[in-house]
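A favour between colleagues. Tell me how you read the following sequence-structure pair.

===
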Amino acid sequence: MEFPFVLLIGLFFAAAVYLMLSKFLVRVLLGVVLLGNGVNLLLFTNGRILREVPPIIPQGHDVPATLTANPLPQALILTAIVISFSFFAFLLVLVYRAYQDLGTDNGNEMRLAEPEDDPLPPTGY
């Protein structure tokens, strides 16, 4: 059951790295979203995929009697979803504002702080 999830996680991470290395900010933003989803799926897979047995300890026992699902990765994923969505919303507003001011989402064309006729900084000290 975990093997298809492992392949999907690898695909998410590969696509995220490919998109985040792009010079266009919208692709970088989509890469960040894919990376967050890949990390969430990785946490979910590490927590054992068992739906049949809830993590309930029977009365008179200190530990569960059988192998159960781990609730900690599920709680971590819920927290990570909220954090990644807020990070995505912040980056989306930042990219949109940069596009409004500069008229492009190309990272190579966003060089207002670096004039073209200035000399290069010194390379050695």
